[in-house]
Amino acid sequence: EGYGETMTPTITSDRVCTLLEDVCGISKGCKYDADNSGYRGSIGMTSSGRTCQRWDTQSPHRHTFSSSNYPTANLTENYCRNPDGEETAW
Fold first, then answer.
1. At a CB cut-off of 8 Å and minimum separation 6, what does 78 contact?
2. Could you tell me the pTM of the whole model?
3. Residue 59: is its pLDDT beyond 70?
């Protein structure tokens, strides 16, 4: 109650960490699941600095990941997600 995600997630030990803050901006720790399947932040860049491909385009790589195929995965923009249970969000 009174807590929400910050707009700036961080990457810690190859996991995406969503910081929790209260309404005054005081940190209340870090929340993440082992494979980042619940990550809903706005990271859209690989750890090597490359911009991720948008989920709604087929270029430069063709794929089957779409909102209709994975309706609960929140496949928006080019944000990192883990719709298929990989080791971590990608």
1. 44, 51, 52, 53, 54, 55
2. 0.62
3. yes
